[in-house]
Amino acid sequence: MPPYPAPPGPPGWGGWGGWTPPPRPGVIPLAPLRLGDILGGAFSTIGRHWKQLLGMALAAYGMALVAIAAAIAIAYLALADRLDRTLDSDVAPGWDSVAPLVFSFGAVYLFGLFTMLAANALIYASCPVVLQDAVLGHRSTFGAVWRHSVRRVRSVLGTVLLTALIVAVPLLLLGVAFIASVITLITMSMNAGGYGWLILLGFLGALATGPLAVWLWVKFCLAPAAAVIEGQGPVAALSRSSQLVRGDWWRIFGISLLAYAMAGVASYLIQLPLSFLNILGPSFTDDASSGGAALTIVITSLVFGLFAVLVGQVLTAAFPQLVVSLLYIDQRIRKENLGPALAQAASPPPAAY
Predict the structure, then answer these.
(1) 269-314, pLDDT tens digit by residue?
(2) Could you report the per-residue pLDDT of 78-109, keeping only the tens digit for each?
(3) Which residues cross the membrane (predicted)?
């Protein structure tokens, strides 16, 4: 009597006499992924390719900080005289004096916001690039990751901007409610009119648009990976993400939320020791015997603080995006039987005779 048949494997895999485990050339098995496979694959990718990921973060955020600092310096040099006159004036400055300052530094703020979005887009583009090699078990270099990421950063930035516009609606309404609350508290003692209707409008608007924004954000969360791996444009990548998420929204939402929560906790734990250093820094500075020693302590504290912020930013930006990119690969394995194609791409080329 023949033995009982083994349980069937995932689509595209089988073997003589029953089920055989799927190949695993890299950080994940080339089969439908479980939660442990996805999280383990993200951690393994960081462990194997941390130099490339950290190098991309240093390059992206370093260039962003230099650009923002240059914009602030240019704005300050251009308006230094006007700013000094405004601050030194004994009378309240009029709108004609304040308007150039408000518009100039508002433009600097918007420039900084866009610059940080571009830096995040470069990180988002690098994660699928690194993950492609990690899944196939191939080695990667910083130069190759940089070149491929830069080529696709415009498309990824487009998907990030379009998704940010969706999420910005409830955040903007919450901001309106918060500002109206602050103005109401300030003017309460002056018997001025309140802004209760604006507060109510902001909170109710945020409650009404928040769930829709979350639903659309999850629906389009796979777009950066599609833009990089498939070479899609921003709109096509959003459509592709919507197609892959369809039918698995809750699963993708839960795993993505867990990834962001884990990254946030890890970032906080990394930056926590530096927070104690910043608290103890002034006391050390007060006891310093010379100004040079005090300056050294302050600079060292700032350097370690910036390093902790950078590492935390890498975790909060890279780890969730690696998880989301693995969800993209998982959805393609489940819906398009991508596993055999990945196994073929991972296998070494035949030897020449």
Answers:
(1) 877 766 665 555 555 444 544 444 554 555 566 566 666 666 666 6
(2) 777 766 666 566 655 555 666 676 777 778 88
(3) 53-78, 98-123, 156-183, 195-218, 249-270, 290-311
- In the chain, what are the domain boundaries? 35-338
Taking the C-alpha atoms of residue 233 and residue 203, their distance in angstroms, rounded to an integer, is 35
Please, which residues bridge with residue 15 across strands? 18
Half-sphere exposure of 261 (CA within 13 A, CB side): 6
In whole angstroms, give the CA distance from residue 311 to residue 307: 6
Q: What angle do CA 220, 225, 227 make, to 5 degrees?
A: 85
Residue 131 pLDDT: 94
pTM of the predicted model over 0.85: no
Could you write out the DSSP letters of every residue in 224-268? HHHHHHS---HHHHHHHHHHHHTT-HHHHHHHHHHHHHHHHHHHH
- Cα dist. 172→114, 164, 165, 169 in Å? 17, 11, 10, 5
Phi, psi of 212 (to 5 degrees): -65, -40
